[in-house]
Amino acid sequence: MVTATEVLLARSLTKLREYFLVQDSPVPDGFLEALESDPRSGARQLAQLIHKRRRQNRKEGQRLRAMLRFEQELWDRGFGLIAGVDEAGMAPLAGPVVAAAVILPHRYKLLGLNDSKKILDERRRERLARQLKQDAVCWSVGQAEVEEIDSLNIYRSGLLAMQRAVEGLGTKPQYILVDARTIPHCPCPQRGIVHGDALSASIAAASIIAKTTRDAHMIEMDRIYSGFGFASHKGYPTPEHLQALKQRGPLPIHRRSFTPVREALGLHPKQGELFRL
Q1: Gap between the Cα atoms of 93 and 255, Å rounded
Q2: Which of 65, 84, 105 is the last residue of a domain?
């Protein structure tokens, strides 16, 4: 009888790399040992890469387990539905601040789940967001508009967006984990965790959904307001954005309580300092 290892070894090394390293397919018993004794140097190199992938996967598994410690504490206390809440867009000069609330299944793990600021690849963030939306018990987004930011201030507007995200959940959470804050007018218990988007899986999930939602909105603003580069900088005060603001003047989506926008309008910058982060 031909074994699975023999069938695999009959394939080209290119196909084996695709199968085990790209598709991350399970490695049959005895296959690694066969690769390590294979006379082809490429086969032995593939064995080393598979060992490396296994070490990385173990390390990632440990990291993801650690990111569930706050949730596990609460599950052990009988809180079954835990929502993570985070926002995106506090520092930009334009566009809304967007928050997300996410309830994940018990002991949920998703490879690569992390604070959205640590995920630099935009396509990877979008893939994670799609998977999270598919897997979550429920999720919701809320936002505070530019006019609210200018009237309330950015800090209060961030809290308002979070409150709206929680209120939008189709399933009522029993406990809420928030990145570094507490949400006002919230009927259920909550805990603010400093750097929570890097320490809690639920908050990290919320940070990814909030970030990708806001980014998509700013890409749409780029189609409406060409020449400002919103698709690339998403409203943040980059040199490109500041230059466009100086040359073209503020748009309706610019936050008039932020100093660079006030300066572009010829207003005294100090009047906006209280609204800065």
Answers
A1: 6
A2: 65
Q: How far is CA 188 from CA 168, 169, 171, 184, 244, in A?
A: 14, 13, 13, 11, 44
Structural domains counted in the chain: 3
Per the structure block, which two tokens stand in for 241? 């954005």
Task: Compute the chain's Rg from CA coordinates.
Answer: 24
- Are 148 and 59 in the same domain? no
CA angle 212, 213, 218 (to 5 degrees): 95
What are the start-end ranges of the H helices in the chain? 4-9, 13-17, 31-36, 41-66, 69-76, 122-135, 146-152, 154-167, 196-199, 201-224, 230-233, 239-248, 259-264
Q: What is the pLDDT of residues 59-94, one digit of tens each?
A: 888 999 999 999 999 999 999 999 999 999 999 999
User: Are 236 and 224 contacting, i.e. CB atoms less than 8 angstroms apart?
Assistant: no
**In terms of residue numbers, what domain contains 170?**
69-218
Which residues partner with 84 through β-bridges? 102, 177
77 and 46 belong to one structural domain: no
* CB-based contacts of 267-274 (< 8 A; 24+ apart in sequence): 274/153
Verify that 49 and 158 share a domain, yes or no.
no
Query: pTM score > 0.70 for this model?
Result: yes
DSSP annotation of 262 reads: H
| Number of alpha carbons in the 13 Å side-chain half-sphere of residue 204 | 23
Residues 263 and 231 in one domain: yes
